[in-house]
Design a protein that fits this description.
The chain is an alpha+beta fold. 28% of the residues lie in helices and 28% in strands. It has helices at 8-18, 58-67, 107-124, and strands at 2-3, 25-26, 30-35, 50-54, 71-78, 84-91, 97-103. Strands 1, 2, 3, 4, 5, 6 and 7 form a seven-stranded antiparallel sheet that branches.
């Protein structure tokens, strides 16, 4: 789900709908920040186009995302939820926020995802959303 809202309160509300803050487990202790102003060639990333920033939890991730609207990065959180395995918080170089989640590929979870997409788009006024299925190669 994509939104122009990058405010900490908005993102925390989303996260807390699916996990208590104590249940969040940050899966990456640093994030690679990419800045559009540093990219010399579009769609080509060089060593000097990004920097690594240490993060210690949801508040650090949101502080970086809010304070750097022209920077892009993603952060991954394991949560304790009966359907959702992980939350993915992505900030884009053009000041958007993307809220993602990973679920096991089952028929029940596909129905859950479709309902989530429909309800969340209306409730949170997301600009758009999508469901992507990934199958592990045999």
């Amino acid at each position: 789900m994509i939104s122009k809202k990058r405010e900490k309160s908005f993102i925390l509300e989303l996260v807390h709908n699916y996990s208590g803050e104590s249940d969040l487990k940050l899966l990456n202790d640093e994030v690679m920040i990419l800045g559009a102003e540093n990219m010399k060639v579009q769609n080509e990333i060089n060593d000097d186009d990004y920097e690594w920033i240490k993060v210690n939890g949801i508040n650090d991730v949101l502080d970086v995302g809010y304070s750097k609207p022209d920077k892009a990065f993603s952060s991954y959180f394991k949560i304790n939820h009966n359907k959702i395995n992980n939350l993915i918080l992505t900030f884009t170089i053009d000041d958007y926020f993307i809220f993602g989640m990973s679920l096991d590929d089952t028929d029940d979870n596909l129905i859950y995802s479709k309902n989530f997409l429909s309800e969340s788009k209306m409730k949170y006024n997301f600009l758009s959303g999508a469901i992507f299925l990934e199958q592990i190669p045999a």
